[in-house]
Design goal:
Strand 7 (83-92) and strand 8 form a beta hairpin. The N and C termini lie far apart (34 Å). The protein has 1 helix and 10 strands. The chain is mainly beta. Helix content is 7%, strand content 44%.
């Protein structure tokens, strides 16, 4: 399979990227917000859901443009425990503005306040076999009804 490159400019496009990133594994140190550039970056090890191939993972990058603010919940900057990405979602506030939510297993989440949807995902090359296919209980999280830690900005790369 060739390297996957996807772009999202609306909520429907974002669901396609979300499907490809479902069960991606990352750590808080794999998330970075570049406030001066209004850009949010993520590097993850996504599960390759290609049918009829042995289970495998791919190193993938994601960047979100036009990010005005980032809020997090349940992320600890120096936590070495891997997290599993469940979904990326979008909710409009004052269209086309809104928030992109990255929802992780265990209740962790990142909310990106965006001017509009402008997201790109790209496989970065390395591929390796995975021991098994991902499986988990789906955690339903309503980010509008739960508090997000405004004092804890999205973690950046480890020093």
């Amino acid at each position: 399979m060739e390297l996957l490159r996807l772009a999202a400019l609306d909520a429907e496009d974002l669901t396609v990227i979300s499907a490809h990133l479902q069960d991606a594994i990352l750590r808080p140190e794999d998330l970075t917000y570049l406030g001066d550039e209004q850009r949010f970056l993520m590097v993850a090890r996504r599960f390759d859901w290609t049918p009829d191939v042995p289970p495998r993972r791919r190193l993938t990058g994601l960047h979100v443009e036009r990010v005005r603010a980032v809020r997090t919940r349940g992320l600890v900057r120096d936590d070495a425990m891997p997290m599993s990405l469940l979904a990326l979602t979008f909710a409009a506030t004052d269209a086309p503005s809104g928030h992109v939510d990255l929802v992780f297993s265990g209740g962790a989440a990142v909310r990106l306040e965006v001017e509009c949807i402008e997201v790109r995902m790209k496989d970065l090359g390395p591929v390796w076999e995975a021991a098994t296919r991902p499986g988990h209980d789906v955690d339903r999280i309503d980010l509008d009804r739960t508090s997000i830690d405004r004092a804890n900005p999205a973690p950046g790369p480890a020093a």
